[in-house]
């Protein structure tokens, strides 16, 4: 059965159950047992609707949510509104973890979690709801488990799938509000378009290095992601957390603020209570929060309004996107929906060696007791202190031009050591994963004099391939 | 005329990793944003200009703010700089 059918079935059963429970409540009132403790009994699995959805709060609920319940912007009506709301967390990573957990803690009735990926050990420094024991487990299931163990009243739906044009509309339509906690432009455009076409507000967060950004799209007359970014960035300017690094507390903060904005947005839907004029709503529709953790600076800026010529949120007569199924998001963005590295292929096969082949080169030189090659590590200097191959010389990729004299001198020294008549000097270039090393080979060919007897190759897959194919004890980061 | 420039979200990597710049421009001339972008290209850019500019425009994925407002709200390339203006270039983040 598809997710949609399951959801319909569940909705049907819930409505049946509600009718029955309403009937029981009515009958109990008739026989005068209303208010007795058994009315407050709940299914601890959280699968049955909580009493909050019936129009009153149970004693347990009052205790549990008491600290927010007494805020005038929340109150009983607000708490019931949260219990009747559903939120979709798109991405169970650094942003999704705190967002989901705060929403569940606050008593949001239904939390959906979407993620196709599994927990990796390198996720744990920022994706704080996953556990060491969950490495290798579905991220969506792992976060759902954390949500359930915090608040068993919350209904959690795990969507352990890759979000794409075929499922995005159904998924987004099944919830009141969506949170973009994803990690790549293709997914961000897809989520935006699905939210616009399904009429759902989108709470968007992002983080990288020391910086984070937060805004609310498609809320009432506010702009959408495409209003701001009609053209996607060239993939070469898009950096992910794996390549750029990130301080865990940054997505922690932004994800928490996403939960905050979501709660305010949900509370804005509460019918005005004449005795309570405390109206609240999201603060970041049409505004963007820019946080820089390095200088501890928060900046809030005004964004352009909804664009009348927007490809997706303009009027149905004007817009060019009517169905997400019709858009090839990977093509549009020049890169698919994965933050994992998709290896560059710039050099031809004969200009590259595999890690195993390079191991043989090293082995031979050990047997010959001399090293007839030069190994250049083009990673940033900082990363060479994490791990490096013996006898490698570090000339960072981004400094190749400015350090060209040093590079020439280095090659020259090795050329001088080489016996006359011997084959050309082999220069091997290595980096973390075998992308920059290819660019470096190309650049070095233009930097070194063409008549020097030098053959420059790179190591396919870089140090990561070395760790996987040659030395299992070599660190992977 | 003194103008403050701020680069963030990774845009600073094109400017020697320095986020905050204060520049002085000849006050007797009028300075549109278009002219400022050219000035930045000629005077501040450390690396390949195509990483920052595409034709006359800032490349897709960089938001431009004038005194904390989207430059679309104040005339974009035609906005005329005032003394003490703060211009911010933010590269959009996608990570999470």
UniProtKB/TrEMBL annotation, chain A:
Alphabetical UniProt keywords: ATP-binding, Coiled coil, Cytoplasm, Metal-binding, Molybdenum cofactor biosynthesis, Multifunctional enzyme, Nucleotide-binding, Transferase, tRNA processing, Zinc
Cofactor note: Binds 1 zinc ion per subunit.
Location(s) in or outside the cell: Cytoplasm, Cytosol
Full protein name: Adenylyltransferase and sulfurtransferase MOCS3 homolog
Taxonomy, superkingdom: Eukaryota
Protein source organism: Daphnia sinensis
Known pathway: tRNA modification; 5-methoxycarbonylmethyl-2-thiouridine-tRNA biosynthesis
Signal peptide, first to last residue: none
Family: In the N-terminal section; belongs to the HesA/MoeB/ThiF family. UBA4 subfamily.
Classification via PANTHER family: ADENYLYLTRANSFERASE AND SULFURTRANSFERASE MOCS3, UBIQUITIN-ACTIVATING ENZYME E1
Entry keyword Magnesium: no
Record NCBIfam families: PRK05690.1
Rhodanese domain segment(s): 369-475
Region (Disordered) location: 38-58
Record has Electron transport as a keyword: no
Residues reported in the UniProt entry to bind ATP: 94, 115, 122-126, 139, 183-184
Binding residues for Zn(2+): 224, 227, 310, 313
Protein's job: Plays a central role in 2-thiolation of mcm(5)S(2)U at tRNA wobble positions of cytosolic tRNA(Lys), tRNA(Glu) and tRNA(Gln). Acts by mediating the C-terminal thiocarboxylation of the sulfur carrier URM1. Its N-terminus first activates URM1 as acyl-adenylate (-COAMP), then the persulfide sulfur on the catalytic cysteine is transferred to URM1 to form thiocarboxylation (-COSH) of its C-terminus. The reaction probably involves hydrogen sulfide that is generated from the persulfide intermediate and that acts as nucleophile towards URM1. Subsequently, a transient disulfide bond is formed.
Active site location: 241, 431
Record InterPro entries: MOCS3/Uba4, Rhodanese-like_dom, Rhodanese-like_dom_sf, ThiF/MoeB/HesA, ThiF_NAD_FAD-bd, Ubiquitin-activating_enz
Gene Ontology CC terms: cytosol
Residues forming coiled coils: 3-30
One Gene Ontology MF term: URM1 activating enzyme activity
From TrEMBL, chain B:
Pfam families: Urm1 (PF09138)
Alphabetical list of CDD domains matching this protein: Ubl_Urm1
InterPro entries attached to this UniProt entry: Beta-grasp_dom_sf (IPR012675), Mopterin_synth/thiamin_S_b (IPR016155), Urm1 (IPR015221)
Pathway: tRNA modification; 5-methoxycarbonylmethyl-2-thiouridine-tRNA biosynthesis
Location in chain, cross-link Glycyl lysine isopeptide (Gly-Lys) (interchain with K-? in acceptor proteins): 96
Function (record text): Acts as a sulfur carrier required for 2-thiolation of mcm(5)S(2)U at tRNA wobble positions of cytosolic tRNA(Lys), tRNA(Glu) and tRNA(Gln). Serves as sulfur donor in tRNA 2-thiolation reaction by being thiocarboxylated (-COSH) at its C-terminus by the MOCS3/UBA4 homolog. The sulfur is then transferred to tRNA to form 2-thiolation of mcm(5)S(2)U. Also acts as a ubiquitin-like protein (UBL) that is covalently conjugated via an isopeptide bond to lysine residues of target proteins.
Homology family: Belongs to the URM1 family.
Keyword list, A-Z: Cytoplasm, Isopeptide bond, tRNA processing, Ubl conjugation pathway
Organism: Daphnia sinensis
Record localization: Cytoplasm
The protein's name: Ubiquitin-related modifier 1 homolog
Source taxon at top rank: Eukaryota
Protein modification: C-terminal thiocarboxylation occurs in 2 steps, it is first acyl-adenylated (-COAMP) via the hesA/moeB/thiF part of the MOCS3/UBA4 homolog, then thiocarboxylated (-COSH) via the rhodanese domain of the MOCS3/UBA4 homolog.
Modified residues (1-thioglycine): 96
Principal subcellular localisation of the protein: cytoplasm
Gene Ontology CC terms, in alphabetical order: cytosol
GO BP, sorted A to Z: protein urmylation; tRNA thio-modification; tRNA wobble uridine modification
């Amino acid at each position: 059965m598809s997710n949609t059918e399951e959801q319909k079935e569940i909705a049907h059963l819930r409505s049946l159950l509600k009718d029955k429970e309403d009937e029981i409540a009515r009958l109990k009132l008739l026989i005068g047992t209303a208010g007795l403790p058994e009315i407050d009994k709940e299914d601890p699995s959280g699968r049955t609707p909580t009493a909050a959805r019936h129009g009153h709060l149970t004693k347990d609920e009052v205790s549990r949510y008491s600290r927010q319940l007494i805020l005038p912007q929340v109150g009983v009506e607000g708490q019931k509104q949260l219990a009747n709301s559903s939120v979709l967390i798109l991405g169970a990573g650094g942003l999704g973890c705190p967002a989901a957990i705060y929403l569940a803690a606050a008593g949001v009735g239904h939390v959906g979690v979407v993620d196709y990926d599994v927990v990796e050990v390198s996720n744990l420094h920022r994706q704080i709801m996953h556990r060491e024991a969950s490495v290798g487990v579905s991220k969506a299931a792992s976060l759902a488990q954390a949500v359930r163990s915090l608040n068993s009243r919350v209904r959690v739906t795990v969507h352990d799938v890759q979000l794409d044009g075929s499922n995005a509309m159904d998924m987004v339509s099944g919830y009141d509000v969506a949170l973009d906690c994803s990690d790549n432009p293709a997914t961000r455009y897809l989520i935006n378009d699905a939210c616009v076409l399904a009429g759902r507000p989108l709470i968007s967060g992002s983080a990288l290095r020391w910086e984070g950004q937060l805004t609310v799209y498609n809320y009432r007359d506010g702009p959408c992601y495409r209003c701001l970014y009609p053209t996607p960035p060239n993939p070469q300017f898009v950096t992910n957390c794996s390549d750029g690094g990130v301080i865990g507390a940054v997505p922690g903060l932004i994800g928490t603020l996403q939960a905050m904005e979501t709660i305010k947005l949900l509370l804005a839907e509460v019918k005005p209570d004449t005795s309570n004029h405390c109206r609240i709503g999201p603060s970041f529709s049409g505004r963007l929060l820019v946080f820089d953790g390095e200088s501890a600076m928060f900046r809030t800026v005004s964004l352009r309004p909804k664009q009348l010529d927007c490809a997706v949120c303009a009027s149905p007569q004007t817009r060019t996107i009517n169905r997400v199924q019709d858009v090839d998001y990977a093509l549009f963005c020049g890169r698919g929906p994965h933050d994992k590295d998709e290896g560059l292929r710039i050099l031809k096969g004969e200009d590259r060696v595999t890690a195993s082949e390079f191991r043989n080169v090293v082995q031979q030189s050990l047997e010959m007791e001399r090293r007839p090659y030069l190994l250049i590590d083009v990673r940033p200097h900082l990363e060479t202190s994490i791990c490096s191959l013996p006898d490698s010389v570090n000339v960072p990729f981004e400094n190749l031009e400015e350090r060209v004299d040093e590079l020439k001198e280095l090659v020259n020294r090795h050329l001088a050591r080489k016996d006359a008549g011997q084959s050309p000097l082999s220069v091997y270039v290595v980096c973390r994963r075998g992308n920059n090393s290819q660019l470096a080979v190309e650049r070095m060919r233009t930097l070194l004099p063409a008549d020097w007897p030098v053959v420059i190759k790179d190591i396919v897959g870089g140090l990561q391939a070395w760790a996987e194919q040659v030395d299992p004890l070599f660190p992977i980061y | 005329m003194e103008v403050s420039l701020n680069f963030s979200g990774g845009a600073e990597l094109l400017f020697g990793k320095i986020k905050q710049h204060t520049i002085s421009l000849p006050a007797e001339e009028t300075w549109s944003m278009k002219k400022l972008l050219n000035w930045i290209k000629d005077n501040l850019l450390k690396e390949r200009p195509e990483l920052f500019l595409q034709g006359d425009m800032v490349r897709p994925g960089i938001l431009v703010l004038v005194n904390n407002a989207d430059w679309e709200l104040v005339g974009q390339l035609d906005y005329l700089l005032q003394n003490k203006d703060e211009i911010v270039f933010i590269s959009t983040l996608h990570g999470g």
